Amino acid sequence: MLLLGSHVGMSGDEMYLASVKEALSYQANAFMVYTGAPQNTLRKKVSELNIAKAIELMESSGLSFDHVVVHAPYIINLANPDPEKRAFGVSFLTEEVKRTDAMKASQIVLHPGSAVGGDRYQAILWIAEGVNQVIQNTAGLKVKIALETMAGKGNEIGKTFEELKQIIDLIHDQSRVSVCFDTCHTHDAGYDVKDDFEGVMKKFDAILGKSYISVFHINDSKNPKGAAKDRHENFGFGFLGFDSLMKIVYHNDFMHIPKILETPYVDDRPPYFEEIEMIKRQTFDPMLVENLKNKP
Ligand code: FE
Ligand code: FE
Ligand code: ZN
C-alpha cells in the first residue's frame, strides 16, 4: 500500500485533531506536522495539543501512528559554535522528542545543522554530541531522530551521504537515528535523482544502508541539479518532473516508508489533495493543480 501524505498544520482550538482532519481531507494515510511555527521555538504544552481526540480519529479512520512524522523547527542548530545555543538546542529538541512520543508519532525529522564557522568536521562532532545527549535524555522512548538530506545552501551539513554517515557513526544508540530522504534537497545537492535514482540509491546503500531511510520528502525542485538552493516546486512541475518522482514514490524497496509532500501552496491554497490524486491516478494532470489559481 502506498503511504502518502503531506505536511499539515497544527493550530486553533483543535490543534493535533485539526492536523489529522486536514490529512484525511487530502485522502492521505500519512502526514507530517510541526509542533508549532517552524521558524521559532514557542510551543504549547503537551496538554494543550488535543492529543487524545486526534488519536481517537486516527484509530477510527485507520491511520497508523507509524506513518505520522514530526518535523523539528529549522532554527535549531546543534552545530552552533556558541555552547549556550547548543545547550538550548539540546534541551528544546529533548522536549520535541517527548512531544513526538506523546503524539504517538514514530519519528522526528531534524535538519542536522549548519557549520556557521566553516569547520564542517567540528560541526559534525557537535551535531553527533547533541543528538547523543537528546537520545540519552529520552532514553526508553522509541522515537527516531531522522536526519534530513540537505540541499547544501550556506554551510548546511548533510549535503552528502558521507556527512550523514559520519554523524551516524558517532551515535551511541543507532536504533534511535534514521534518515529523511528529501528528493528536492538531494537533487539540489548534486545527486542525479531525476535520471539515475537507482544509481543514487546504490551509492546511498553503500555509504549508509538504505534501511536507514525512515521517511521520504517528495518535492520537485525549482532549480537544476546541483543548484544548492532548496526551493521546492509542485509535484511534476519542476526540474525532477512527474515520471522521475513517480519512480521514487512507487519504488519497490520503499513501499513501507511514508512519503510526505512539502510542495508549495498555489495562490495560498494547499495543493495536496490534487497532487495526491495525480499520484494515485498515476497520470500527470497539470490543470488539476493549475486550477487552484482560478478558484474563487
Ligand atoms: Fe526539512
Ligand atoms: Fe524536506
Ligand atoms: Zn527544503
Brief summary:
The protein has 296 residues and is of the alpha/beta class.
Describe the structure.
- By secondary structure, this protein is α/β, with parallel strands linked by helices.
- The strands form 3 sheets. It has an 8-stranded parallel beta barrel with strand order 1-2-3-4-6-8-9-12. Strands 5-7 form a two-stranded antiparallel ribbon. Strands 10-11 form a two-stranded antiparallel sheet.
- The protein has 10 helices and 12 strands.
- The longest helix is centred in the N-terminal third of the chain and has 20 residues, at 83-102.
- The chain binds fe (iii) ion (FE) (2 copies) and zinc ion.
- Zinc ion is lined by residues 182, 184-185, 230, 232.
Beta percentage is: 15-25%
Largest sheet data: 8 strands, parallel, barrel
Specify the helix fraction band. Answer: 25-40%
Order of helices and strands: EHEHEHEEHEEHEHHEEEHEHH
**How many angstroms separate the termini?**
35 Å
The total count of helices amounts to: 10
Structural class: alpha/beta
> What order do the strands of the largest sheet run in, or round the barrel if closed?
1-2-3-4-6-8-9-12
The shape is: globular
Q: Which ions and ligands are bound to the chains? A: fe (iii) ion, zinc ion
Features:
296 residues; alpha/beta; eight-stranded parallel beta barrel; two-stranded antiparallel sheet; 10 helices; 12 strands; 36% helix; binds fe (iii) ion; binds zinc ion
Any chance you could write out the topology, listing elements then pairs?
Layout: E1 4-8, H1 16-25, E2 30-34, H2 51-61, E3 68-71, H3 83-102, E4 107-110, E5 113-114, H4 120-137, E6 144-148, E7 156-157, H5 161-169, E8 177-182, H6 183-188, H7 197-207, E9 213-218, E10 220-221, E11 232-233, H8 242-249, E12 259-261, H9 272-281, H10 286-290
Parallel strand pairs: 1-2, 1-12, 2-3, 3-4, 4-6, 6-8, 8-9, 9-12
Antiparallel strand pairs: 5-7, 10-11
Helix pairs in contact: 1-2, 3-4, 4-5
The structure holds fe (iii) ion (2 copies) and zinc ion.
